């Protein structure tokens, strides 16, 4: 269907106000549609022209900051990269990301992720200390080894899609594990052993059942499910090696 300047679509937006609502309610708004308008544009239209009380997060509008993650017609997506024209004739339902406490309307609390992320030490760890004016060189091939896993924008869509995290909130989660693996694969890093206790714990990589929804939801093609399975293989190989080989031969 080709849209015209007069096309409009109904957006059903989840509303939740702490202290007022006992559970989310849905409020319908009619907004204009053009080929360029994303769901985020529709939400801003509502905020600016129809209902200034609506709360949601956004920043860059370019799929870089990851702040506008939401549930759109049942799927975890970035509101700035999901277009209203694709949902004509409508309606399009917009809800907060699943698996997170709702603060207000479409705003969720991601404190759990922010607490877990530092545990995987997502930074380069070295045993030696280079002078300030020196650098650790690596080849394009060495960079390609981890580049895919470095594209994470912390949008939390993978957590919203993850059935394991939904059932077991203690699970370290897709993005945190993928970012830990990103540094394990970095040729400049020497901190894999420092991350092992967290990544290889019962609520770390081994809790993943490889459903793969996290990789499907990822807007940047990071493939956290692949990172987790790759780490499992590495961890299992090291465990067998440590069991079979004498200490001096490891």
In short:
The protein is an alpha+beta fold. It is built from nine helices and seven strands, in the order E-E-H-E-E-E-E-E-H-H-H-H-H-H-H-H.
Observed structural traits:
250 residues, alpha+beta, Ubiquitin-like (UB roll), Fumarate Reductase Iron-sulfur Protein, Chain B, domain 2, 2 domains, 5-stranded mixed β-sheet, two-stranded antiparallel ribbon, 9 helices
Characterise this structure.
The chain has about 250 residues and is of the alpha+beta class. It has two domains: about 10-110, Beta-grasp domain (Ubiquitin-like (UB roll)), CATH 3.10.20; about 110-250, Alpha-helical ferredoxin (Fumarate Reductase Iron-sulfur Protein, Chain B, domain 2, Orthogonal Bundle), CATH 1.10.1060.10. About 30% of the residues lie in helices and about 15% in strands. The chain has helices at about 40-50, 110-115, 140-145, 155-160, 165, 175-185, 190-200, 215, 225-245, and strands at about 10-15, 25-30, 70, 75-80, 90-95, 100-105, 105-110. The strands form two sheets. A five-stranded mixed β-sheet has the order 2-1-5-3-4. A hairpin with a 2-residue loop joins strand 3 and strand 4 (about 75-80). The longest helix has 21 residues, at about 225-245. The mean pLDDT is about 90.
């Amino acid at each position: 269907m080709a849209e015209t300047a007069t096309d409009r679509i109904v957006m059903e937006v989840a509303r939740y106000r702490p202290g007022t609502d006992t559970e989310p309610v849905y409020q319908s708004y009619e907004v204009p549609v053009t080929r360029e308008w994303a769901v985020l544009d529709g939400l801003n239209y509502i905020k600016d022209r129809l209902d200034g009380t609506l709360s949601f997060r956004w920043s860059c509008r370019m799929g870089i900051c990851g702040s506008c993650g939401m549930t759109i017609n049942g799927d975890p997506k970035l509101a700035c990269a999901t277009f209203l024209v694709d949902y004509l004739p409508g309606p399009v339902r917009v809800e907060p990301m699943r698996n997170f406490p709702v603060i207000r309307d479409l705003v969720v609390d991601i404190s759990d992720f922010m607490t877990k992320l530092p545990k995987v030490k997502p930074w380069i760890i070295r045993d030696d200390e280079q002078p300030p004016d020196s650098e650790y060189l690596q080849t394009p091939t060495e960079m390609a080894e981890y580049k895919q896993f470095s594209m994470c924008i912390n949008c939390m869509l993978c957590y919203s899609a993850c059935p394991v995290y939904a059932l077991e909130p203690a699970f370290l989660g897709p993005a945190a594990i993928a970012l830990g693996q990103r540094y394990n694969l970095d040729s400049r890093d020497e901190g894999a052993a420092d991350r092992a206790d967290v990544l290889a714990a019962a609520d770390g990589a081994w809790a993943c059942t490889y459903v793969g929804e996290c990789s499907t939801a990822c807007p940047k093609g990071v493939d956290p499910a692949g990172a987790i399975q790759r780490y499992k293989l590495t961890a299992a190989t090291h465990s067998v090696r440590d069991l079979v080989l004498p200490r001096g031969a490891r």
